Amino acid sequence: MLSRGVISAIAPAQGLTTTQRALVGAVFNAMTGYSAILDPEPIDPEQFAEALAARTIEFRTRIVQMMVLGALVLRPIPAEVTAKVGGFAAELLVDESMLEVA
Predict the structure, then answer these.
(1) Total-model pTM
(2) Terminus of the chain with fewer CB atoms < 10 Å: N or C?
(3) CA dihedral 47, 66, 28, 39 (to 10 degrees)
(4) To which H or E segment does residue 11 belong?
(5) Cα–Cα distance between 80 and 10 in angstroms, integer?
(6) Which residue, among 87, 82, 88, 84, has the nearest Cα to 101 in the 3D structure?
(7) What is d(CA 6, CA 70) in angstroms, rounded to the nearest whole number?
(8) What pLDDT does 102 receive?
């Protein structure tokens, strides 16, 4: 579920870049001990927020920070990606200042 949400937020229209795939794969394995599913069925922000409703704000903030990191490796960052990450952050009730940088 976690990789599904992050990838849904950061993937540009043409799909994850090679760098994003490597980043998500490495970060998820290091943080969770599980492999990320890199080609998941997309999930919308509302569904993802429902799935993470029992998680703490600190946990949800880390997930949004992972989304921001995944967006920041895109050059240039597509407006659609920043909008999606912002939408996920809003649904997760996370106020992340790094969204301004993106």
Answers:
(1) 0.92
(2) N
(3) 50
(4) none
(5) 9
(6) 82
(7) 8
(8) 66
